[in-house]
Amino acid sequence: MDYRRSYIRDLLASEPPMKASAYGWVKTRRDSKGVSFVQLNDGSCFADLQVVIQEGAIPESELRRVTTGACVRFDGMLVQSPASGQAVELQATTLEVYGDADPASYPMQKKGASFEFLREIAHLRVRGNTFGAVFRVRNELSWATHKFFKDRGFMYVHTPIISASDAEGAGAMFQVTTLDLENVPRVDGKVDYSQDFFGRQAFLTVSGQLNVEAFAQAFTNVYTFGPTFRAENSNTPRHLAEFWMIEPEQAFCDITGNMNLAEDFLKYLVSHVLDHCRADLEFFNQRIEPTVLETLHHVAESPFERITYTDAIKLLEASGEPFEFPVFWGCDLQSEHERYLTEKKIGRPVIVTDYPKEIKAFYMKLNDDERTVRAMDVLAPRIGEIIGGSQREERYDVLVSRMKELSLPEEPYSWYLDLRKYGAAPHSGFGLGLERMMMYVTGMKNIRDVIPFYRVPGSAEF
Ligand code: 4AD
Ligand code: MG
Questions:
Q1: How crowded is residue 458: how many other Cβ atoms within 10 Å of its Cβ?
Q2: How far does residue 318's CA lie from ligand 1's centre (Å)?
Q3: What is the C-alpha separation between 178 and 75, in angstroms, rounded?
Q4: From CA 142, how far away is CA 225, in angstroms rounded?
Q5: Is 293 helix (H, G, I), strand (E, B) or coil?
Q6: What is the CATH number that goes with domain 8-99?
Q7: pLDDT by residue (tens digit) across 348-390?
């Protein structure tokens, strides 16, 4: 195989005429009098390459194998296209079929297949227009994340996936064990975890935050970006059991610095995809969500609103909206409340700060009122919560008493408490859910459609 083969993206940008080979998967073949047209795609860009085969150029017995889904190579001349719709086309003279795709059974042929159906063939849906666009955007968001932090001097930290401490203190963790579940060892009626693989109970991490905090207390500005796991039984279009989170942490940084970083980061990601994913975003705007482009331009240009939880509750109480979940000071904001604030009341992303301590995690810095904590959630229209973060409690005694209030065991967090014993800097950080950001940028309505292979309650196919 020619190691200098070009992506279709590069062929489409080439100066015709020139000899070229095009590799890819067949989207469609259309035959008319004396000529066949093949739309070929290799995932490198939204547009297909049009391949034109004059009658007799390729033996009929070979051409018959060029069906939707087949993997092929065409060689020929790249020429200016006489037809509208594309600048260049390939006049093919030879064909090699690498892999046939039987039209009687290939499941990706139906036009307009539902997203529900496509979820059942997640290994093949990636060859279609929508999922091609989705995963190119996801790739750009990931790359832009590293660029953003690298350019600002943040160190990238690989935090562990297996963890003994519950970073959110919420108890929604998957347990990791090699014990024989049919025959669990016990002492005094309780499971004997000293015989388990790690000699103790272990879990899949819900967040890299606690570990990344340790690195912020040595390298100042750090971030982690990896998979996180939540064993909550949330069967919603916004929740996954396995999702990717980007978590920066800064020493010598208060909640204002944290909000500024979150806002800069979201704007940077949006500008990056506007610059690098034009064709894909135009597709989303046309076919998925007609407000996507307008929203993204708006986000890139206007400052986010910043309000306290207490003021947010006042706005909700004054709204006169018939909310399903009642609004009162102390209630957790539900998605309907978040959407009212961002969509109806304010019309752009909103950062809500200083939530009641009862509805937030143990590690958030307690305010002087002793009722609220220095939390900050970024809420976005259509999505609701897209970022959760806070200034961290760096006072040893306050943190210990918060943990006692919440009945958290000290032992698994002893190392985390050490960070407060020895040279604790004031520090802050947040977590952006990559899939929530994907939904925001693409307008896709279900989080299962913006991750390659989704894991939710009752389903871990592929
Ligand atoms: O608000 P969360 O739970 O915050 C944390 O995990 C902190 N430790 C982050 C930090 O301060 N370093 O989650 C952060 C974000 C949410 O705002 C949301 O975007 C996403 O992670 N998220 C989920 N995404 C998909 N499925 C789920 N089940 C999610 N839970 C949270
Ligand atoms: Mg949260």
A1: 8
A2: 29
A3: 54
A4: 9
A5: helix
A6: 2.40.50.140
A7: 999 999 999 999 999 999 999 999 999 999 999 999 999 999 9
Residue 336 CB contacts under 8 Å (≥ 6 apart), including other chains? 323, 324, 325
What 3-state DSSP class applies to 437? helix
Counting from 1 in the atom list of ligand 1, the atom nearest the Cα of 378 is 17
**pLDDT band at residue 9 using 50, 70 and 90 as cut-offs:** very high
* Ligand minimally distant from the alpha carbon of residue 228: 1
Domain map (residue ranges) of the chain: 8-99, 126-158+217-449
Q: Which two tokens stand for residue 160?
A: 């562990």
Q: Kindly state if the Cβ of 434 falls inside 6 Å of ligand 1.
A: no
Same fold: 8-99 with 126-158+217-449: no
Residue 49 main-chain phi, psi, to 5 deg: -90, 130
Residues 265 and 272: beta-carbon distance below 8 Å? no
Ligand 1 in contact with 448 (CB < 6 A)?
no
Q: Which atom from ligand 1 is nearest to the alpha carbon of 209?
A: 12
Contact 409, 113 (CB under 8 A): no
Q: What would the pLDDT profile of 14-56 be if each residue is shown by its tens digit?
A: 999 999 999 999 999 999 999 999 999 999 999 999 999 999 9
- Specify whether the backbone of 204 is left (phi greater than 0), alpha (psi in -120 to 50) or beta: beta
Task: Give the residue whose CA is nearest to atom 21 of ligand 1.
Answer: 433
Q: 171 burial class (0-12, 13-18, 19+ CB within 10 angstroms)?
A: exposed
Check whether 74 has a pLDDT greater than 80: yes
Tallying the residues shown for the chain, one arrives at: 462
Q: Is 387 in the pocket of ligand 1 (CB under 6 A)?
A: yes
Residue 69 has pLDDT above 90, yes or no: yes
Q: Which ligand has the shortest distance to the CA of 437?
A: 1
Q: What is the per-residue pLDDT across 380-427, written as a single tens digit (0 to 9) for each? A: 999 999 999 999 999 999 999 999 999 999 999 999 999 999 999 999
What stretches of 186-315 adopt beta strand conformation (E)?
A: 186-187, 190-191, 202-204, 221-229, 242-251, 305-308
CA-nearest residue, atom 20 of ligand 1: 433
* CATH 3.30.930.10 for domain 126-158+217-449: yes
In terms of C-beta density within 10 A (0-12 exposed, 13-18 middle, 19 or more buried), how is residue 190 classed? Answer: exposed
